[in-house]
């Protein structure tokens, strides 16, 4: 469920998402076959600052939320992000080529889905359903384009 602006119902602005960062959340615990959701509550999204803290902060501001100052401090003063690590290996010449557009495909940042994760579909629908649905979409597209 999202509000009228399609913003997330909730997201955690104080915990960096990892495989063990949140307690298991459930919709109907006794009926569920998959243990836990992406976060500790249904429809709550997690933040993933390992690709870059600025994008997380921008996402928070887009939804009128504030990133936890302590988390921001950790990811700006103490922990190198993946993005910083990537840029650290670029030589000055590579950076100039990238900036001028001679080289493409060298990202400044990562897509929104990697920063505010949306992995609830697995918990809600299950892998088998999603796999079959994706195959049906592929088959339908092949039929529409005459490539089947």
UniProtKB/TrEMBL annotation:
GO cellular component term, pick one: cytosol
Enzyme Commission number(s) of this protein: 2.3.1.54
GO molecular function terms noted in the UniProt entry: formate C-acetyltransferase activity
SUPFAM superfamilies assigned: PFL-like glycyl radical enzymes (SSF51998)
InterPro entries: Auton_GlycylRad_Cofactor, PFL_dom
Signal peptide start-end: none
Annotated ranges, domain PFL: 1-148
Claim: Acyltransferase is one of the keywords in the record: yes
Pfam families the UniProt entry points to: PFL-like (PF02901)
Class of the enzyme per the UniProt entry, highest EC level: transferase
PROSITE patterns: PFL
Protein name stated in the entry: Formate acetyltransferase
Organism name: Proteus mirabilis
């Amino acid at each position: 469920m999202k509000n009228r602006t399609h913003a997330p119902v909730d997201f955690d602005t104080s915990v960096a998402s990892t495989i063990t960062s949140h307690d298991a959340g459930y919709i109907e615990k006794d009926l569920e076959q998959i243990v836990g959701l992406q976060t500790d509550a249904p429809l709550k999204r997690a933040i993933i600052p390992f690709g870059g803290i600025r994008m997380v902060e921008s996402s928070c501001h887009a939804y009128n939320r504030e990133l936890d100052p302590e988390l921001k401090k950790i990811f700006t003063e103490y922990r190198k992000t993946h993005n910083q690590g990537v840029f650290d290996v670029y030589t000055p010449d590579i950076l100039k080529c990238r900036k001028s557009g001679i080289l493409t495909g060298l990202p400044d940042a990562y897509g929104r889905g990697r920063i505010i994760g949306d992995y609830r579909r697995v918990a809600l629908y299950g892998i088998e359903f999603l796999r079959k649905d994706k195959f049906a979409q592929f088959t339908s597209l092949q039929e529409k384009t005459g490539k089947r």
